[in-house]
Amino acid sequence: MTPPAPHRSTLDLIGNTPLVLLKGPSEVAGCEIWGKCEFANPGASVKDRAALFIVRDAEERGDLKPGGTVVEGTAGNTGIGLALVANACGYETVIVMPDNQSKEKMDTLRALRAELVLVPPTKFSDPNHFVHTSRRIAGETPGAVWANQFDNVANRKAHIEGTAREIWEQMEGRIDGFTCAAGTGGTIAGVGMGLKAFDEKVTIALSDPHGAALYSYYACGELVAEGTSVAEGIGQGRITANLEGAPIDTQFRISDEEGLEWVARLLSEEGLCLGLSSGINVAGAVALGRKLGSGARIATILCDTGFRYLSTIYNAAWLAEKGLPVFPWLKQE
User: Helix, strand or coil for residue 167?
Assistant: First the structure.
């Protein structure tokens, strides 16, 4: 195997992640299910891509100048990506996050030099929502820019120009479907737009967790949420700017239990330690594979590392408290 070419900048380490065939999901779906290993990014998640494009876009527009500050509201991974990119470019970061996210994300952000502001989780309509709080802080901080990942289309541009092209090339142009969940919508919209530009026949499917409203929107035209999910960083109740015009062909509603089943199987059978959003994406890929039939080639996003959730989905007491199945190897005698 030829090693990758050396890079002259640490920022060049973002993207060009591996693609791997997932054996268990492929066998269950009766077709090929491929996972894009976004945990291989420097910040261990797919959000590094959006972070880089958002910072570069702000620089090009002249909004972010030397010594400036990047402010963002995030469930964690975008903040981690922004902190790393900002460090490499000489900026400071202020990250606003709901206080119900995993302790690992909070500890990681503090370790990365970010100023962390925790707020209670609340509805988007509440002025104290983490997104609105981050916008206010950015407006009150001299030399600061608000990353605005939900409505800043530099987010999806990262996936149109990067992720989609990589998947197309890695699969040698033989791809029938792509699916993932939506948080900001940047990944599914960007990859969808990018893949459709290569081949309009590629099926783009949304894998929506319970508690989100996009499944209903794409199925029936109405934003209606049903149920709840403990998945972090995915699930959306509005059409963000990144989601506008997203080429969604079909949609699946995926439960936490389905997602956790694939998290458990991929760890115990294939040695991949992933988060719940990845499990939900894989469950959606299996559903799409079954819909498209034998011989189909499906790609999805393995969003981040499971090491970011040791206190949540890999913690027996936490799972039991949430009424979720505990992985067999975590059960104490």
Answer: helix
* 19-61: pLDDT as tens digits: 999 999 999 999 999 999 999 999 999 999 999 999 999 999 9
How many residues would you count in the chain?
Answer: 333
Q: Of all residues in the chain, what percent carry a pLDDT higher than 70?
A: 100
pLDDT at 333 over 70: no
Instruction: Judge contact between 240 and 184, C-beta under 8 A.
Output: yes
Nearest to 281 by CA among 188, 174, 173, 149: 188
Nearest-CA neighbor of 84 among 73, 95, 99?
A: 95
Q: Which of 23, 36, 47, 291 is catalytic?
A: 47
- Residue 322 falls in the annotated catalytic set: no
Q: Give the SS3 label for residue 22.
A: coil
CA-nearest of 45, 53, 43 to 83 is 43
**In the block, which residue shows the tokens 């120009």?**
161
Distances (CA, A) of 193 to 33, 189, 212, 278, 306: 20, 6, 22, 21, 28
Q: In angstroms, how far is CA 125 from the centroid of its own chain?
A: 23
Nearest Cα to Cα of residue 238 among 207, 255, 216, 254: 216
For 299, the token pair is: 């790609």
Cα(100)–Cα(111) distance, integer angstroms: 19
